[in-house]
Amino acid sequence: MYIYFIGSAIQPYEPFINANLGNENRTITKITRICSSDLTSQLESRMDLAIECGFGDDSKRVEASFYDPVHDQVIIVSGSSYRNWTICSYSMSEIEERFDRDWNMCQQATFHDGALNCEAATNAADLDDHCHIFTRKTDAFRMQTCSRFGQDAKRVYENCNLHQFAENSYRYGWLEDFRAVTGNVIGSVAANFEKIVSVLPDFENEAIFLGGYSGLSMLLLRVAWQTERLSSASHVFWKRRTFPTSRFPMCLNGNGKTLFILNSTKITTNRISCSGLYSTCDDLANGGWQDPLSCIWCPDEQRRAVTSSYDKFGCLHPITKACPPVVDHANRNENHSEWEVFGSNLDRMEDVEVYVCEQKCRVNRALSSSTKLLCVLADGTVQDAACNVRVVGRLEGYDGFTLEVKKTTHSVALMTDLSQHTKSPRTWKEVVAILAVVLILAVLGVIICLARKKMRKTKDGVSVAVSSSNFGEDAAIRHYFNKYDQCLADFVSPYEQMFRDIDERLKIDISSLHIEEEIGRGHFGIVSRATYNAPDGTTKKVACKILKQSIASVSDFITEGLTMDRFNHPNLMQLIGIAFTDGKIPIIVTDYMENGDLRTYLRDDSKVITLRSLLRFACQIAEGMKHLHMCRSVHCDLAARNCMLDANLCIKIGDFGLCRRVSDESEAYEPSNKHRDVPFPWMAPETMISETFTFQNDVWAYGVVLWELTTRGLTPYAGKKGIEIMEFLRSNKRLQMPEYCPAQLYYQIMLPCWHADPQSRPSFADLVVLLNDLVDSMESNQSQQLCSNYEKVHVVGVIEEHKPLRAPFTMPKQNTWKNGHQIRDQRCG
């Protein structure tokens, strides 16, 4: 029985030195074997055998390895400083044969054989096999060619029985063979790893799993097993990121059918199958179409899921090349007969048709794009804004592929446009009759309200409670509910109609919520922890935001909740649903964030926070904002207080009260709610003046968030009023670099975010790249600083003048650009 090790070292190439043919150092990858029964004091049974992949190995170092006894294969990943990773396979039987042959060869050689035959060679071709095997256990001061252990001509010792030789001389053990065993190249990866720590072969499906450190996270890949000579990097089928945990982030079960992934303190299981590895069609689009598992996407309405081509029973229209488009929402324009459908990859379908309330809406292809379809109803017909909208077309040979569009609440008209009705088939008499009925009902409502108010005045100490029993016990919540005029509960308001128009999947029955203690307050309402009993029988902790202001805020409040439903990203707060009390009070239900908001977390002296953690937070915020901007939306209120932390300390950007989709023409948004508090310390100078929000304003705010991170929660421009902040910024002054902040983070990332010219600021796609470059640099040169406790800054200068700020922002030259966008894999965790 033997124990094996695999490693690499930079060392002299002894065969050439011994023969005076050169004195060069090489990076040698080797496999080491030691007898498990070795009883010698210096493990003299050790043998080293060089291995290679057949090309360019001189600068490569071994990174990870795996041995599979069933397939008799050793899989080794090696790499260089250029991050080109090579995957090779070796026959373990062949390696064993070489070890045994080397030992037996040396037991037939003498010291004089080495001196005569090896040292006298005049070129490398004259060196026979024995001249490449050296012993490190010599009586001299340097390695020498191997010879018989013990020099006893009457006995040859087995490699595992060297302890039986009792003398101290001639113990020529620890052999090293410099002739490399050549393996087969089965893969090559030019990916974003700083270090690969794990490799797992999937022999059955001819794929390879790799795991390693990438930026602030652990990157896991599934790549193609290549059987021919490599001409390009292996195709990446599957990719996943996890929190950095141990050096062994994943493993396979005994039969190789299940992949176990270690993520923080949890272990997740993934069946090595199409449905086990790929959750959505987008996962397939990112490489999974070429997976040997032969995965397909079934778009049928009754079975929309990833499955295998070998198990496609029941799928009438399998998709094998491209994913269907995604529709986000639909808006009715001001003339009420023109509609816009927003989404992504809308150009993937051919012969597209749009139906509004089952009426065909003619698509204007000249004004449509991959993100928007513009259509007009025939003959200027008017349809209600709450209509169901369908997009129908041909997708990869599937005629009649249909997408249901979410109902929009952004374009619901609360007032009737008389000018539109004058163009409708209705006569003016009908219009007058309708208005008369509406007027009578309104008068009756006012009379009833006044009468009820007068009756309540005769009752002392009577307060109105919310009908739901869950809320009746909470005095703090009831205090806010009682501020509403009870007349609002006596008839159906436009806002209740708005709730009725919300997508059914988002509606939550108020009886399924049990409200607990208050945990925070936002612009619109108070936030309480609650228990949600979901329809599927599960129970989970949730956060409930409950409106606290006047009824005039209901529309914006509900809009804030529905805005969350537009985005699907791990670093953006997700909407669970919206509830409505019997008192017509809306409640937004989201995931419960166990670690609260980021600013409070940073300020907590009891928290041990490393620089690596701070950079991870920064990277996650940048990733979330990158997705938000890709969806053509601006946040308008990005700050540490609006970034939440879940149980795994993962950032979720929240508070979408000001978040809006920007205009396609101006790429800007002008808020209609002028009464909301303005976050001056996080606003760009041009926004302070124009009150118009752009993508560049979010980037400016992100720079301030980085400053909050690196001061552990200090208030920016503390003690300064809005006008004072504006004057400071206009005089080309900026927040000063915090005491413990890395200079590269401040000068190459923060300051560009605060450039005086908005167009010279980086995008969030740029920022993700810059942050990863920063981490790469620190991993190589300042790894200890990344892991050290980041101390709280108690005193910091507020502002600092920076004259170079007027120079335009540029990305490093080595990056590649195409059509104005940088091409580079993102590595944020």
TrEMBL record:
Entries under SUPFAM superfamilies matching the protein: Protein kinase-like (PK-like), Sema domain
Biological process terms from the Gene Ontology for this record are:
cell migration; cell surface receptor protein tyrosine kinase signaling pathway; nervous system development
- Region annotation (Disordered) ranges: 810-829
Example of a GO MF term:
ATP binding
Residues annotated as domain Protein kinase? 513-775
Residues binding ATP, per UniProt: K545
The way this protein sits in the membrane is described as: Single-pass membrane protein
- The membrane-spanning stretches of this chain are 431-451
Q: Where does this one sit in the cell?
A: Membrane
Keywords associated with the record:
ATP-binding, Kinase, Membrane, Nucleotide-binding, Signal, Transferase, Transmembrane, Transmembrane helix, Tyrosine-protein kinase, Ubl conjugation
What is the superkingdom listed in this entry's lineage? Eukaryota
Check the record and name the InterPro entries matching this protein.
Answer: IPT_dom, Kinase-like_dom_sf, Prot_kinase_dom, Protein_kinase_ATP_BS, RTK, Semap_dom, Semap_dom_sf, Ser-Thr/Tyr_kinase_cat_dom
User: What Pfam families does the record point to?
Assistant: PK_Tyr_Ser-Thr, TIG
In the UniProt record, which is one GO cellular component term? plasma membrane
The record places domain Sema at 1-272
Put simply, this protein is called Protein kinase domain-containing protein
Organism listed in the record: Ancylostoma ceylanicum
